[in-house]
Amino acid sequence: MCNSYNVLPSQNAAISVTDLTKRYGERNAVDHISFDVPRGTICGFVGPNGAGKTTTIRMLLGLVKPTTGAGTVLGEPLTHPERFLGKVGALIEGPAFYPALSGRENLKVLATLGNFPHDRVDQLLDQVGLLDRATSKFKTYSLGMKQRLGIAAALLPSPELLILDEPTNGLDPAGIQEVRELLGHLAGYGLTVLVSSHLLSEIEAIADDLVMLRDGKVLFFGQTKALLTAQQSTVIASSSNPQDLARLIEIAKNSGHQAQIVNESVHVIADAEFAANFNKSAFESGIILSSLVTARPTLEETFFELTSDN
Amino acid sequence: MIRIFKSEWRKLRRPTLFLGTLAAVIGLTGLISSLLFLLLDSERGNGREGMIITRETLALPNGLYVGFANSAGLLGVIALCVFAAQTAIEYTNGTLRNLLVREPRRLLLLAGKYLAMISFALITVCFSAIVSVGISASLANVKDVNTDLWYTSSALSLFGSTFGNVLLSVISYGTVGMTLGLLLRSPISSISIALAWILVVENILSATVNGISKWLPGQLMSSIPVQFGVDFSYSWALFGSATYLIIFGAVAVILFKRRDVVN
To answer: How far B135 CA sits from the closest chain A CA (Å)?
Structure first.
């Protein structure tokens, strides 16, 4: 079932798919999915391995023909990729280049093919920090350098839409930070970015919108903030006296909330508003709380909750 | 089309491929052309499959190009390897998806790649012709071959037809290689299967089954420029090769157009 939180399909979507399906034999790799990615946003594309993310991306790029369904990219139908791919940059399932050619020559192969100015090749190599290794063969690059070359290739057409499949794979923390800043910078110019990543903390930090898949189906699409806000928060209370914890659980349960002890604190599943009442009830029972905070589930916790079999 | 052609040439011109292929072409053509003259009086023959090519034959107007024509089969095998590798490597490297994102019109992309590889084959054939003619002209005097008819206008027109036939033969081999590259998506598999078929299976079949040569693609394609030792005519070689070319070309087009790119 698809949960969409207060987001209606946009009339001005960069990507819009309806009932998209890809069937391999008896298995639906992508199973009647529908979602929109609004223009000018960074949209996270998440799901467990085998959820259908890469197959969906390949269908969006005209590499794989959908079994059923339809869609548009930048307003053009999926059936005519030649109408929109000139404005789309993509990094699909890791960087793929010719090992015996240099980084610069690899980009020139694509620049020539796409009829993009060759001046842009060195600009992009500089932008991703590879200009000093431009003449080295691709096979001599580290994983992080290969990834950065892949991002440079995706930026070649000065795209309106950037589709990145695991762009931070192999990057060190500084590299991940650079990619995050780069994506934010690009979104600032009105570029739409669809980015899949296993690093959900990264997605949470950068993605305005989210499409979540499991077993080829859309579990959620809409604003990241809306998804996280809709999740149940937790009130976490601690006391300097460990013997008070059992009584705090009793107080929470008497108020109709589930509670348990986690790491010498009491975790109560409740809205943030409950915190004040909880503090008051504890005080009236003679318990002085040493700390009281309200925590919302992270995207990672929400993801596991939505994608778990239970 | 021009940008696809130029893009493909950025890959074809890498030194290991370009210079390596030219070195192989020059070496093999040089060897075949040299042995043609150096083994003139040998009872074991000086031509393809032990064929004896006499001084009188070499003194004919096309004598200057016999070594070049005899090299066609090996030039074809080299073209087959290059076409197969250049096609299949896009799948093994995963680079086909990049190419199709930049040029989603698949038939146009295939046509551009094919033309680029044909132009590469044309260069190898030119080098082969230059090397073979140079060696033949040098060794003719050494081995007392009469060259009076070599430098006439009729000899020059024969060069044109020999060159065209060799190029056609080489392109036919290359097309087979490209189709196998698309079909098997692995350079090693496509080249090894093609070579095993052409160099081993076809030769065994030709030697053991009467009249089968005229139906075998490798025998037909290598016989376009050289008619020695085959039991079919030039026009049959052309017709048979063209038929195979159409079949392999159609398979290549259908595979490339319709198949999902999942590598």
So the answer is: 34
Is A94 in CB contact (< 8 Å) with chain B?
A: yes
Are A31 and A217 within 8 A, CB to CB?
A: yes
The distance from CA A143 to its chain's CA centroid, rounded to whole angstroms, is 21
Domain that holds residue B50: 2-258
* B228 CB neighbour count, 10 Å cutoff: 15
Global pTM value: 0.82
Angle subtended at Cα B190 by Cα B187 and Cα B192, rounded to the nearest 5 degrees = 100
Domain membership of residue B263 (yes or no) is no
* Of A64, A90, A113, Cβ closest to residue B7: A113
Alpha helices in chain B (DSSP H): 2-12, 15-38, 55-58, 66-70, 72-92, 96-102, 106-142, 153-184, 187-195, 202-208, 217-222, 234-258
Asked if residue A200 lies in contact with residue A299, where contact means CB atoms within 8 angstroms, the answer is yes
Give the distance from residue B79's alpha carbon to the nearest chain A alpha carbon, in angstroms: 20
Number of domains in chain B: 1
Q: Which two tokens stand for residue A205?
A: 């930090």
Residue with tokens 């064929």: B51
Sorted by where each starts, the structural domains of chain A and their CATH numbers stand as 13-229 (3.40.50.300), 231-307 (3.30.70.790)
For residues B232 and B245, give the distance between their C-alpha atoms in angstroms, rounded to a whole number.
18
Higher pLDDT, B192 or A233: B192
Residues of B with CB below 8 A from A93's CB?
94
What does the alpha-carbon distance between residue A53 and residue B229 come to, in Å, rounded to a whole number?
59
List pLDDT tens digits, range A80-132. 999 999 999 999 888 899 999 999 999 999 999 999 999 999 999 988 888 99
CA distance A229 to chain B (A): 37
Reading the block at residue B116, the tokens are 């680029």
pLDDT at A5: 34
**Confidence at residue A3, expressed as pLDDT on a 0 to 100 scale:** 39
Q: Rounded to 5 degrees, what are φ and ψ at A262?
A: -135, 120
What are the residues whose beta carbons fall under 8 Å from the beta carbon of A187, sequence distance 6 or more? Answer: A40, A41, A42, A193, A208
pLDDT band (50, 70, 90) for residue B164: very high
CA distance A35 to A17: 6
Cα(B141)–Cα(B163) distance, integer angstroms: 24
What SS3 class is residue A310? coil
- Strand A68-73 and strand A13-24: the pairing is antiparallel
Query: How far, in Å, CA of A231 to CA of A295, rounded?
Result: 11
